[in-house]
TrEMBL record:
Keywords: Membrane, Transmembrane, Transmembrane helix, Transport. This is MFS transporter. Its main location: membrane. It comes from Flavobacterium taihuense. It is a multi-pass membrane protein. The chain crosses the membrane at residues 7-26, 46-65, 77-101, 107-125, 166-186, 201-220, 232-249, 269-296, 308-326, 332-354, 366-385, 397-420, 487-508. It is found in: Membrane. Signal peptide: none annotated. The keyword Methyltransferase does not apply. PANTHER family: MAJOR FACILITATOR SUPERFAMILY MULTIDRUG TRANSPORTER MFSC.
């Protein structure tokens, strides 16, 4: 039976609010990339690196941030990280080059990781005896996923007042609020989880080298057309070499960052696959954003406001899935529901990719996306942590991070971009071959465009060229829409495929088991 003293509810809410700015240090400028690119005037490739590096810095610093978060006194650490975050965030406004902007953003990302761990420790220690793990995981996912959408929206609204700098100032206000909350809710300045500091420095450096290679592939794989470029092929070979070096390193150290023993637990293997799968399904959101901006011409505020519909699904699914997990419902029931919602999201949007679609047409699909995240993410986080001993908790965490964030979201998103480009070229070639005098519809459209430009006072030659260019642009738009439809049709099938596997092979027909490791967010 769960019971919480009324006086502690206020403290619990305050402690959770304290985590929000650190979860969203990079989310607040999600829709401002075009303004930032225009401000610095960097090349597309350099700006791509600038976008990826802070995320890789955050993920690379994750294991060390976890250790630091347990060693230093909590209130001192929170106040220090909040103050340093304000400095780094403000310094990014005064950066004169994209390189310095990236440095300050990366420092902000690293500080946010320390802030997340430091702010969560009191919650875990104080309320874990009261709230069992399903409820802790559910609350964390509820705050993390919900605040992400809100920060992206409010950051865009702040940007619309003046420019992208207002979104950065908005984040500074949130860090100031974190300082105030730290003074209120952290009465004692102690390090409750402090233990002898032991860290796998050599393994960490090998992992960072592995991430650097992935960073190169994400930033330049598409422009180099992947395996047709010898440097890309060489980088993939380096990945295998680095992996081999790490396996040798593991045999020479007692406490590696990722202990291969973690994969003796079947749920960690299947959980990592599940993390990869959910990350892959979620990464197709960039296609919708591209469709809104590139095809429909929505501005960033319109895009952010439309995505708020995801919150409705989150507000329904996360509390419901948390309750079901706590009541020990079968895992298969939650997973089938989550995969079905992802399938509905992709399936409905498959029929919505057409010019002239309105923002209200995205409302239903985004609710299904929110439902899918709400059902799958808490359950996946619990499942991968099931029966894992505490000394392998960090290994479990890094396994999930690499599967979902590195391979599915970052590298998978880059590969998806290449796949869309190739499909676009194929469709454009096919459509262009139909633009001939034998195609009466195309010929009629060409004549209509030509007559329009003739009435504008252009010569017959200029009107002909303008009309052909206009028809070519329409063909390019149609080709891109067809490429989007192809991706979402495939993803719809991939979303429903796990449901068949779960039902046919009667997998996961049991409730969640014992979870003892910390609910570190992925």
């Amino acid at each position: 039976m769960i019971s919480v003293k009324k006086g502690s509810v206020f403290t619990l809410v305050g402690l959770y609010l304290l985590t929000i700015p650190f979860f969203n240090a990079l989310n607040v400028t999600s829709y401002d990339n075009s303004q930032i690119l225009g401000h610095f005037g960097a090349s597309t490739t350099i700006f791509t690196y600038s976008t990826y590096i802070p995320f890789f810095a955050m993920l690379g610093f994750l294991p060390l941030g976890l250790k630091i978060g347990k060693q230093i006194k909590v209130r001192t650490l929170i106040l220090s990280v909040s103050f340093l975050s304000i400095i780094s965030n403000t310094a990014s406004l005064y950066a004169t080059t994209i390189q310095w902007f990236t440095v300050w953003r990366s420092l902000l990302a690293i500080l946010s990781i320390i802030g997340i761990f430091a702010s969560m420790i009191p919650i875990i220690l104080k309320y874990n005896p009261v709230f069992n793990m399903p409820i802790l995981y559910g609350i964390i996912q509820f705050i993390m996923q919900g605040s992400k959408q809100l920060y992206q929206y409010f950051g865009t609204e702040m940007t619309s007042i003046h420019n992208w700098t207002f979104g950065v100032y908005f984040l500074n206000i949130n860090f100031l609020l974190a300082i105030v909350l730290a003074w209120i809710f952290y009465k004692k300045d102690v390090a409750p989880m402090k233990s002898p500091f032991q860290f796998d420095w050599r393994g960490w450096l090998i992992m960072l080298l592995f991430f650097v290679v992935i960073l190169f592939l994400c930033a330049e794989g598409q422009t180099r057309n992947w395996f047709s470029d010898p440097k890309v092929t060489m980088e993939f070979a380096f990945l295998l070499i680095i992996l081999g070096i790490y396996l040798i390193h593991v045999r020479l150290t007692k406490v590696p960052i990722i202990n291969p023993d973690i994969y003796k637990y079947k749920n960690v293997v299947l959980g990592s696959i599940l993390f990869f799968y959910t990350g892959m399904m979620n990464s197709t959101g960039s296609i919708v954003t591209g469709f809104m901006t590139n095809i429909l011409g929505f501005d960033s505020i319109y895009v952010a406001r439309t995505h708020l519909a995801i919150l409705i699904g989150l507000f329904i699914a996360i509390p419901l899935s948390t309750y079901l997990l706590y009541k020990r419902i079968y895992l298969a029931t939650i997973w089938v529901t989550g995969f079905a919602c992802y399938g509905m999201y992709h399936g409905i949007l498959y029929f919505r990719f057409y010019p002239g679609i309105e923002s209200t047409d995205f409302f239903g699909p985004f609710i299904f996306k929110g439902l899918a995240i709400g059902f799958l993410y808490p359950a996946a986080s619990l499942y991968i942590s099931e029966n894992v001993p505490k000394h392998l908790g960090d290994s479990r965490m890094m396994s999930g991070v690499i599967a979902r964030a590195i391979f599915a979201s970052l590298l998978g998103g880059a590969i998806l971009g290449t796949y869309i480009s190739n499909l676009n070229v194929q469709h454009k070639t096919g459509l262009s071959q139909q633009l001939s005098s034998l195609n009466t519809v195309a010929q009629a459209q060409l004549n209509k465009n030509k007559n329009y430009y003739l009435h504008q006072g252009l010569s017959a030659w200029e009107a002909e060229k303008k009309a052909e260019k206009s028809l070519s642009n329409q063909t390019s738009q149609s080709a891109l829409i067809l490429a989007y439809k192809d991706i979402y049709l495939v993803m719809t099938a991939l979303c429903f495929f796990p449901i068949l596997v779960l039902l046919l092979f009667r997998i996961a027909r049991r409730p969640i088991g014992s979870v003892a490791v910390e609910p570190i967010p992925f």
